[in-house]
Amino acid sequence: MSTGAPTVLEIALVLGIFLYQFGWRYGLVLVATLAGYFLYTTLATNWRIAIRRRMNDSDTDANQKAIDSLLNYETVKYFGAERREAERYDKSMIHYEQASTQSYVSLAVLNAGQTVIFIIGLTTMMVMCVYGIEAGRNTVGDFVLINLMMGQLAQPLNFMGTFYREVRQAIIDIETMFSILAQSPEILDKPGASPLVVREGRIVFDNVAFHYEPNRPILKGVSFEAEPGQTIAIVGPSGAGKSTISRLMYRFYEPQGGRITIDGQNILDVTQESLRAAIGMVPQDTVLFNDSIGYNIRYGRWDASDEEVREAARLAQIDRFIESVPEAYSAQVGERGLKLSGGEKQRVAIARTILKGPPILILDEATSALDSLTEHEIQEALRRVARGRTTLVIAHRLSTIVDADEILFLDHGRIVERGTHKELLALSGHYAGMWNRQREAAEARAKLLEAEREEMEEAE
User: Fold this and answer.
1) Contact call for residues 397 and 235 (beta carbons, < 8 A)
2) Do the domains at 8-181 and 196-278+358-460 have one common CATH topology?
3) Residue 107 confidence (pLDDT)
4) Strands 257-262, 203-213: parallel, antiparallel or unpaired by DSSP?
5) Please, which pLDDT band fits residue 6 given cuts at 50, 70 and 90?
6) Residue-wise pLDDT tens digits, 331-364
7) Domain boundaries, the chain
8) Closest to 124 (Cα-Cα) out of 16, 30, 40
9) Which residue blocks in 224-367 are alpha helix, DSSP H?
10) CA 26 – CA 9 distance, rounded (Å)
11) Cα–Cα dist 377/350, whole Å
């Protein structure tokens, strides 16, 4: 009898020997033993699945809490919440330990149950054989043969039980990965989608409507046109839908109504790869990789030369800072760029977009983390970079977009005003009101700073 991988043929062979040598009664006991063994293995393994899944969920929860608290360690320290975070992690680990203990106990129960079923079957046949020897139907050799045959059968049965248990357990351990692989992307290229061909860079929003939830519309029939080389500024209060426009441009979402075209090509009909290759983005919240400054700048165009990387840094007004640090472009920025200030991170983002050199630019509050002097320098750099490119500027500070070719004031998902800076001021509407409020706030800050400076001079 082979001790390797068990097969149905091996088990059938043992059953045939028992039927031929000892009769149907022994065969019936063997069949009952096999049926009980397989049934118990299946039921017990399925019972263990829920425990194993609970253990995996507890492990995932504990890991998530640990990673979350480590990534946001500054916030934890701001509020002195180290003990609270440790307690949260300990609670998750307690759940994991309990589930892990239950998993090992259930495994012991499974193995013990399999052994008991097999021993019951073996004992039953040996008792039957003893009575058969007394009655003269069997011999001592039959008794020894039954013991040997059942001992040989134990190895294939144990292998089959272990194999079934391990396969089911492995499936549970990686079911999260399977669930992710089973998901289909929400945004897919159409069959036969062609690459985007940017000839001039004309952008047209034609009655675009969009919502994340049906009962909360974000854009309500937005229409505008950006001519090649023009700079279009989109302003308005928070929640008006300004950043949603950039997300639709990148096809992170698709509009429920209307259409968006670039040089007459509906962006829904082109490949996402070619669309995103044609657009450069400087986001409001800059995310950097935990690598060097040079790596993060070069991310805009991986095949760029070192000289091109340095030129992009110079245009973004960050070259002097980079050269002032000991390791220059090899200096590490830390997780999420924590070793850099907000302004430095944003200038790195501007540099990598400059390096990408796309025909269309989207600037989403690109200078929001900069001081006034640096903001002015970056604005000059962005104007040079945007020259000859179609540019969409999403801004909250109106002083940064006064030179835009057209300004769109977005409110509650609709364009309520449009025109140049001077034209909108003359309307004395929403834009003029926001401009006056920001100007008054700036003047108040300037007076406060001047008063503080005078107090300091008098104190000296």
Assistant:
1) no
2) no
3) 82
4) antiparallel
5) very low
6) 777 777 777 777 777 788 888 888 887 888 888 7
7) 8-181, 196-278+358-460, 287-356
8) 30
9) 242-249, 272-277, 293-298, 306-315, 319-324, 342-356
10) 19
11) 12
